Amino acid sequence: MHIRPERADDADAIAAVTHAAFQDHPHSDQTEHLIIAALRAADALALSLLAEVDGQVVGHIAFSPVSISDGSHGWYGLGPISVLPEKQKLGIGTTLIETGLSLLRADQAQGCVVAGDPAYYQRFGFRHNCALTYPDLPAEYFLALPLQTGSAQGVVSYHPAFSAQA
């Protein structure tokens, strides 16, 4: 497996992997590929990584800046993350997340948030943080990972691209 940054000609492969990964997901509204395209169009994909196996794109992860109501800067949202269904449970998603977080740390990012399954994301250090909230989501599913010393508190807002509709 090879992890690399997105290139200009990867958009179609990323859309295909994302669409396939979320096609039968019970908590998906099937707009994840549109979110990535909208983030790209707005130049808000802070980090976009692909996983390749034998030259085929099998996974993708996006990180984009988030806003926090206290004015904290340097925080990012993880997601969407996608792995082809037939390649799931092979460590591809784990490697994408670990690589992305490592690159954020190297860039002196302050932290990262994710809306997702605590049982999955806690192994990367994400935890529920009552100082950071996200509206209309049960608190236990909104997790944060500080990457530097210091703290942020308030309501987190994702980029408007997350409102992309089919």
Which labels suit this protein?
single chain, alpha+beta, Aminopeptidase, 10 strands
Describe the fold and architecture.
- The structure is a single chain.
- The protein is of the alpha+beta class.
- It has a single domain, classed as Gcn5-related N-acetyltransferase (GNAT) (Aminopeptidase, 3-Layer(aba) Sandwich), CATH 3.40.630.30.
- The protein contains 4 helices and 10 strands.
- The protein has helices at 11-22, 32-41, 92-106, 118-121; strands at 2-5, 47-53, 56-65, 67-68, 75-83, 111-115, 127-128, 132-133, 142-146, 154-157.
- The strands form 2 sheets. A 7-stranded mixed β-sheet has the order 1-2-3-5-6-9-7, with helices on both faces. A 3-stranded mixed β-sheet has the order 4-10-8, with no helix packed on it.
- Helix 1 (11-22) packs antiparallel against helix 2.
- The radius of gyration is 15 Å and the shape is globular.
- The protein starts with a strand and ends in a 9-residue tail after the last strand.
